[in-house]
Amino acid sequence: MCRSRVAFALIALTLTAPVLNAQKIVLSVDASTPGAKIDRNIFGQFAEHLGHGIYDGIWVGPDSTIPNTRGIRNDVVDALKVLKVPNVRWPGGCFADEYRWRNGIGPQRVVTLNPNWGGVVEPNTFGTNEFMDFLNQIGSEAYLSVNVGSGTPREAAEWLEYMTAPPSTTLAKERAGNGHAAPYKVAFLGIGNESWDCGGNMTPDYYLSQLKIYSRFVRNFNPAQQDQQQMLKIAVGPGGGEPRWTEWTETIMKAYQQHTWSWDINGLSMHSYTVVKWPPSYASVGFGETEYSRILKTTLDMEGLISKHSAIMDKYDPQKKVALVVDEWGGWYAPLPGSNPGFLVQQNSLRDAVLTALNLNIFARHADRVRMANIAQMINVLQAMVITDKEKMVLTPTYYVFKMYVPFQDATFVPVAFDAGTYTHGDVTLPRVDAIAARDANGKLWLEITNLDPNESVEIEANLTGISAKSAAGETLTAPKVDSVNTFEAPTGVAPKPVSARVQGSKVTLKLEPKSVTVISIEH
Ligand code: AHR
User: Fold this and answer.
1) Is any ligand 1 atom within 6 A of the Cβ of residue 375?
2) C-alpha distances in angstroms, 58 versus 262, 394, 397?
3) Cα 515 from Cα 350, distance rounded (Å)
4) Residue nearest to atom 6 of ligand 1 (CA)
5) What is the pLDDT of residues 453-465, one digit of tens each?
């Protein structure tokens, strides 16, 4: 059993045998036993044509008084660049399975509706070229979701030809005529979205037949992506842990095991929101400890869900060639009063910061299988990084956690074993702390520790094996209340502050504030 599994087993143990108010937690950080690479793509984002996610959030148009570059707002681009966003999933979501790419290219855009999300007008002014321009501005890669539900394989194949073919074909010439002569790079291809639900209510077998066809015919012609940097194809996967979802994973992975030269996949998608129960009814602001603890308890279910589907994948793909791609995750709460319910508008609080850290840590512990994830969603929708209102913009607590985790992108997982202790509120008992560690490309050791307890601070003693520390310092994120938020009027109420740690040889000690997320680097 690897050390990370030991750590989780210990957490599980403490849930059944509570330790009385352990104020000091000892971490054993084994820097001599490196684990898997924490793929930077687990820090991916999702931007759907939904509410103000694209329009107003990213796209204001070149004639806007809001400062922009070719219609894309500069403040949002500047904020996102800091996060080193590895990939952006677009154009949906449910929207993708009704999207017609031709409506969003060229000088004359076709105006349609967005029936999934409020039935509002979809001007298609933000289309393929604008999305790729946005990616270029923030320095990210494309994760395109093609329309399987109401489109055709030919339509999807032509979209990819338009985007990736060298300028010799008619479609590539059309792209050049629209301002981009060079082939675009499409790093990831999502074949459908939630095909078991909004993507067409398909059975696993029906979807599998579609998957094979799309995988075969939707080609990437970019000369630079033929050997190195090949486009990775991601199949629709499960949306929960119940039998209908395990059957879905079984069907796709069993077929993968027997696949022939003519089709292939590199990833299986999984969607899991932290909701507690549908429809989402928990408030995103104006809540107390009960809602804080219940949401965190529910979010920790991500661990069991990943383990369950990973075990099925291991049966058919023991070499772990197919990644589990958690391409929709995050907190989904009740719409803010007064907002359009179809726009999925919610606030983003300190609770979301803690929730983010817990999920990123789960992904990191499963780094050998979970090699990509996309939080839902990037701007103004669900658990967003950024909230805008006309010319105003505010960065959320979730944004700051993503920023603090940048050093973990492509770092090597380092096992951390610990007895997490417990925090109890009412009928909810949670691990008191969570932690991960990793070494970056320069060998520097990074440690993340989350204190879930909203009332008690915790003393951390980290004992390092394999390195002798010289100094340690970093940042911590906390706020006065579990539902503290950033607003346009008070934008930095929840923002990271410097934190220092004491170092004695191989021992690092520091104090964690209640309900906090802390990242430190250890010089050695
Ligand atoms: O993120 C919002 C929606 O949630 C997506 O469009 C869909 O895939 C999921 O159900």
Assistant:
1) no
2) 38, 13, 19
3) 8
4) 93
5) 999 999 999 999 9
Residues in the chain, total: 524
* Nearest Cα to Cα of residue 19 among 514, 377, 373, 419: 419
Q: Where are the beta strands (DSSP E) in 390-466?
A: 392-395, 412-414, 416-418, 422-425, 428-431, 433-439, 445-451, 458-465
Calculate helix-pair angle for 243-257, 204-217, nearest 10 degrees.
40
Is the CB of 194 inside a 6 Å radius of any atom of ligand 1? yes
Q: Is the CB of 94 under 6 A from ligand 1?
A: yes
Query: 50 C-alpha vs ligand 1 centroid, how far in Å?
Result: 9
Beta strands 68-69 and 72-73, pairing class: antiparallel
Q: What is the pLDDT of residue 176?
A: 98
Ligand 1 nearest atom to the CA of residue 46, by list position: 1
Distance in angstroms between the alpha carbons of the first and the last residue of the chain: 28
pLDDT of residue 7: 42
Cα of 235 from ligand 1 centre, angstroms: 16
* Ligand 1 contact via 56 beta carbon (within 6 Å): no
Instruction: For ligand 1, pick from 95, 269, 271 the residue to mutate: most ligand atoms within 8 Å of CB.
Output: 271
DSSP β-bridge partners for residue 424: 429
CB 523 within 8 A of CB 472: yes
Sequence-distant (≥ 6) Cβ neighbours of residue 482 within 8 angstroms:
287, 288, 289, 292, 349, 350, 351, 454, 515
How far is residue 94's CA from residue 425's CA, in Å, rounded to a whole number?
A: 37
Q: Which atom of ligand 1 is nearest to the CA of 193?
A: 8
pLDDT of residue 264: 98
CA of 148 from ligand 1 middle (Å) equals: 15
Atom number of ligand 1 nearest to Cα 376: 1
List b or e across 481-512, with b for residues whose CB sees 16 or more CB atoms inside 10 angstroms.
Answer: bbbbbbeeeeeebbebeebebebeebebbbbb
Q: What residues are labeled active site? A: 194, 328
Does the predicted TM-score (pTM) go above 0.85?
A: yes
Q: How far apart are CA 40 and CA 135, in angstroms?
A: 16
Q: Is 291 in the pocket of ligand 1 (CB under 6 A)?
A: no
E strands present in 19-132: 24-30, 44-46, 68-69, 72-73, 87-90, 112-114, 120-122
Q: Which residue has the higher pLDDT, 236 or 467?
A: 236
Reported as a single tens digit per residue, the pLDDT across 406-457 is 999 999 999 999 999 999 999 999 999 999 999 999 999 999 999 999 999 9
Q: How far is the CA of 42 from the centre of ligand 1 (A)?
A: 18
Q: What is the pLDDT of residues 52-86, one digit of tens each?
A: 999 999 999 999 999 999 999 999 999 999 999 99
The token duo for 339 is 């907002």
Ligand 1 centre to CA of 394 (Å) is 24
Nearest ligand 1 atom, CA 344 = 2
